[in-house]
Amino acid sequence: xxxxxxxxxxxxxxxxxxxxxxxxxxxxxxxxxxxxxxxxxxxxxxxxxxxxxxxxxxxxxxxxxxxxxxxxxxxxxxxxxxxxxxxxxxxxxxxxxxxxxxxxxxxxxxxxxxxxxxxxxxxxxxxxxxxxxxxxxxxxxxxxxxxxxxxxxxxxxxxxxxxxxxxxxxxxxxxxxxxxxxxxxxxxxxxxxxxxxxxxxxxxxxxxxxxxxxxxxxxxxxxxxxxxxxxxxxxxxxxxxxxxxxxxxxxxxxxxxxxxxxxx
Length: 264
Fold this sequence. Notes:
Layout lengths: L12 E4 L5 E7 L14 H16 L3 E5 L3 H7 L2 E6 L2 E6 L1 H20 L10 E3 L4 E9 L8 E3 L3 E10 L7 E8 L4 E6 L15 E9 L5 E10 L5 E14 L18
Parallel strand pairs: 2-3, 2-4, 8-14
Antiparallel strand pairs: 1-3, 4-5, 6-14, 7-9, 9-12, 10-11, 10-13, 13-14
């Protein structure tokens, strides 16, 4: 479908009178020439785009808004169009179309991240050298390595430690943090009642932490360490591995509590 284009007055807002007074949100691949890419950077930017779009609709114009910001798509758009593989897949109710788009995007991300764990690139490494963390793996529900977890599935972090000196009672632990450093969840073998020692030089221990991934879609990091019960580190890798959590829907915050909502 050919859609005529006119010059927008605000970034990310295109217009034409061909379809009547409405706001159409565009997600997926670029296609419709009447839209421009727009990434909302802050609340004031979002408010400006929402106001500009509403004013043009009130003047009887068709507004094409290219954005992946859920609040704009579901808050002001009359329709959402999703383009993939060079064609419009579906157009219609914003919530329904955007939900289908998110589900497809999540599946694509999961496929891209399957079979491998992100490289260990710690922001900081410290310890007395009595042990070395050789691998930190993120595993999906099928117990295979992945760089993408789906919210709600059972996942795992697997840590392999080689001991370079004798340690009477080693402890191995892990911590999940948000990309801005907020601690989300952490545990270790001592807290979980799993004894690893004593160990001799050359011994290897592989520890797997399995848990339900009740996290909101976002980017996270994994920190792992080997240490004594009193906290003296053998090897500590800070924010060593990146992991992405996806879902079929947007959820704000960190903990995905999956509320059951009723109304009377």
